[in-house]
Amino acid sequence: MECADGTTASRAWRHEGMLSVGAVAERVRWKLQAWQQRPVFDERAGGVVALRLLPDGLVRDPGRQLSLEDGDQEATARAERAVARVQAILGHMAPATAELTGGRAPGDREVRTPWGDAHQDRRADGPWPGQLPAPSPTHVPDTPRPVRLLDADGHDIQVTVRAEVSGAPARLVLPGDSPEVAAWAGPWPEQERWWNPEQARRTARMQVVTHDGRALLLAVTAGRWHVEGDYDT
Description:
This protein is of the alpha+beta class.
């Protein structure tokens, strides 16, 4: 702080990201009021002509991930009212909480529950026959993207009931591109609802890395391949 006659004063505060804009403004106001009561700042000082806020001793913020329920009861009540208003506008299923549970396919392991409803009781530790081994995909598309997986002779790769491939994958045909396959792993078979002929499904998954550095999770059902997930590379 600087006064008209050149008198200056300074104050340093140390905090770890807990001070909001309003809290900083309040501290400055309180400090100015305290300084005005000191004899050194009399009427001859001419009043405050400059006020500067200077960051000093900055450190990297590691970040904090808080839930909506962290904080005092008033903050929790405000969050609940806000979610209730969103549900009233967009529908009961709009605001949801996500939970990682058990499942075979990567998309099956994320369960979304409407806000306020009880979470589904599905154990994550299995057993889940046919579950994909680690690492899991970093991105699972909402809509599967159809592709073709070919061998060196240009024939479509097939997976038998014994989880054997008809040949070594050599090329992946994507929309507008057909990169060569550099490495692959699998297949991992999955058979669901075998007791119900109408709902029975047999799927096999493979991890494929192309020469241009893309890593994809592919799945084949009824002889048709599609991209089920992408990996960060």
